[in-house]
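Support reply, case 0932

Customer input (verbatim):
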Amino acid sequence: MRYSVTFIMAALVMLSCGTAFADIMPVRSFSERSPSTHNANPWGLVYADAITENVPGKVSIHPITYELNGITIAANVYTPAGYDPAKKYPAITVAHPNGGVKEQVAGLFAQKLAEAGYITVAADAAFQGASGGLPRHTDIPYFRTEDVHGMVDLLTIYPGVDKDRIGMLGICGGGGYTLNAAKSEKRAKSVATISMFNTGRVRREGYMSSQIRDIQERLKQASDARASVVADGQEPSSGTVDFDALTDEAIEAIANDLYREGMKYYGRTHRHPNSTFEYTRSSLSELMTWDATDNLKLISVPLLMIAGSVADSLYLTEDAIEKATGTADKELFLIPGAFHIQTYYVPEYVEQEVKKLTEFFGRTL
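Our regenerated output:
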């Protein structure tokens, strides 16, 4: 990560004043944001049946920004039909997948849950999407976990939210980071995931344990990337995909359903200019030494984990729910016949997931 003289001096000042560098700076206020759009949707939403206008008496979307740890976070808040800020509503955070943005699957489930009567928030992760932070595409567990805590911060001050009825939902990588946040986030009364992806384990071992033999080599690459930043300011990246150059034949040849279907979703059917698989290579130093399932027994609230029954990522969800021994109220809910990415958008699967989520949050919030 690139450190400027200003950054270093600020850190020294904080330390000299007795303030820990990692002190949390919670959300204290938020402001309306003018959304940028790249398509016909006024908010750039790319999922099916997305809101196209705010109509009185129906679910509405409210683009906002807030400051979290010195970074401007861009988010969309969804309010239910007939929303009255003087009333009290249950609320849910929705964390997006790795490489995703709030206008994709996170927005879809935020809207669906708002239709069920919840105030919901979907925010772009720090360093990603429309949120601020440099270097771009930094993917470090501390910050991704803070993104979830920050959404809870936001909900506690948002008009109409019942602070005693806040839940959390995370999708794919956002699911792993939501689990990590849930270990200590006792303001949340329940937590759910869809197609949970343990980013630390996969970056360390490879997907489906395909890169265990070269762990040390990749850790060296991460260290070399950090050295490059210090030496010449260059931040090497990994995961870069040129969707325009990728042929349909090349996509179909990908063996794993997660990556094959992911190329279709992110590169074809639900493409968004802010969405990218890219991440800074130096992030691997933190990612490869982190695991979403460490101390998972600290989750003490009801837990629902949803996954496709034939997804090749299912092993990640099964591992996590087995390790969540701190709560007796937990359930693995499988979507018959669904691959990982298909749980994001296929209507029949989304319908099943929303029904299960509304039942779960309805009971636990």
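We compared this against your earlier run and they match. Two observations from our side: Residues 215-232 form the longest helix (18 residues). The CA atoms of residues 194 and 306 lie 5 Å apart. Please reopen the case if you see a mismatch on your end.
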